[in-house]
From TrEMBL:
Keywords noted in UniProt: 4Fe-4S, DNA damage, DNA repair, Glycosidase, Hydrolase, Iron, Iron-sulfur, Metal-binding
Stated role: Adenine glycosylase active on G-A mispairs. MutY also corrects error-prone DNA synthesis past GO lesions which are due to the oxidatively damaged form of guanine: 7,8-dihydro-8-oxoguanine (8-oxo-dGTP).
Enzyme nomenclature, EC number: 3.2.2.31
Cofactor note: Binds 1 [4Fe-4S] cluster.
Protein name: Adenine DNA glycosylase
DNA sequence: TATACGTGGAA
DNA sequence: TTTCCAAGTAT
């Protein structure tokens, strides 16, 4: 068989597999439906960045119900969107999501650009997302490379170069096997394959539709591809958080700066997070320390947050910008997971305190 | 090119 | 328990 035929066989095999086994996902137009809605495709792609399908599901449902189109999202207030995103992580995505929605609503007349280049210029839309939306929502031929595609392609061609150095090689190999027609389906098929068969661990090579096309399956350990550079050790940091409660059952919440960890999110006042954080509370009060620090693991460090709890007078205002939030409504504040856990620990401590 | 940036589930 | 990993982007 000629090389070009072999290349075409890969796309043909994969699309045949997809026609039968495509996962049914909320952001995929059902068979026979009208063309995909670019808003829903874009929203799902942003939510899915570094995030599992299972985690995205409820958030996608919530967002599309509350904000059915890009104009509705663009018109929403920042705090509402940030709170709705709380718990999903990587909060820069939520800030960029709003910026992008407003750019589309204002600068593009409410319509998403339909080219990779136009999409790429939007906030929070990188090489992957631009290619994915161009292909899936607009039927463009685009080379879509995410972690699934990287893994599948590295195995198909047994690419021995370690990541991240292998990226250019993987991209051009993906370009070669991407068909002119159905590039969107091809991309989604690659991702389905990577998520269900060509998985990172214990790939199911025995039932893989590309088994006959795969170089790695002929090696001793197909799962070893792609080769990856060793990871750095994760440092451990300490921090303090303060739960300041008023007699009328309100707690003091701050909004974190846009840049940095948990940027733009509501939070408890807290210290810097490092080897030896300053444990000086934001105000003078009778502080109780919650016995067990809240342990939390982020992407590049782990944190033990010591939570402190105090009741203050009704007329007290802690320093800095913030707001009094009803404790009974703390679930609606949109606290990121770390601070949701800290709040939980503080409230537990508060009940103990009340019994004394 | 390397680093910052969340979270929860699986092995 | 620990480690890895999931539809990446911005700087």
């Amino acid at each position: 068989m000629r090389v070009e035929d072999n290349i075409k066989k890969i796309a043909a095999d994969l699309l045949a597999y997809y026609d039968v086994h495509a996962r049914k996902l909320p952001w995929r137009a059902p068979p026979g439906a009208n063309a995909a809605d670019p808003y829903r495709i874009w929203l799902s792609e942003v939510m899915l960045q570094q995030t599992t399908v299972a985690a995205v599901g409820p958030y996608f449902a919530k967002f599309t119900k509350r904000w059915p189109d890009v104009a509705a999202l663009a018109a929403e207030e920042d705090a509402e969107v940030m709170a709705a995103w709380a718990g999903l992580g990587y909060y820069a995505r939520a800030r960029n999501l709003l910026a992008c929605a407003r750019a589309v609503a204002d600068a593009h007349g409410g319509t998403f650009p339909d080219t990779e280049e136009g999409l790429r210029a939007l906030p929070g839309v990188g090489a992957y997302t631009a290619a994915a939306v161009a292909a899936i929502a607009f039927g463009r031929r685009a080379v879509v490379v995410d972690a699934n595609v990287e893994r599948v392609v590295a195995r198909l061609f047994a690419i021995a170069t370690p990541l991240p150095a292998a990226r250019p090689e993987i991209r051009s190999a993906t370009d070669v096997i991407t068909p002119d027609l159905r590039a969107g389906d091809f991309a989604q098929a690659m991702m389905d394959l990577g998520a269900t068969i060509c998985t990172a661990r214990n790939p199911a090579c025995g039932i893989c539709p590309l088994r006959d096309d795969c170089a790695a399956v002929l090696t001793a350990d197909p799962a070893a591809f792609p080769i990856k550079a060793a990871k750095k050790a994760k440092p451990h940091r300490l921090g303090h958080g303060w739960w300041i409660e008023r007699p009328d059952g309100h707690v003091w919440l701050v909004r974190r700066p846009d840049k940095g960890m948990l940027g733009g999110m509501r939070a408890l006042p807290s210290s810097e997070w490092n080897d030896a954080p300053d444990g000086t509370p934001p105000l003078v009060a009778r502080w109780r320390r919650v016995a067990e620090p809240v342990a939390h693991v982020f992407t590049h460090f782990s944190l033990a947050l010591t939570v402190h709890h105090a009741h203050v007078g009704q007329d007290v205002t802690p320093p800095g910008d913030g707001e009094w939030w009803p404790v009974a409504e703390i679930g609606r504040a949109g606290l990121p997971t770390l601070f949701a856990r800290a709040a939980e620990a503080a409230m537990k401590e508060g009940k103990k305190d009340a019994r004394l």
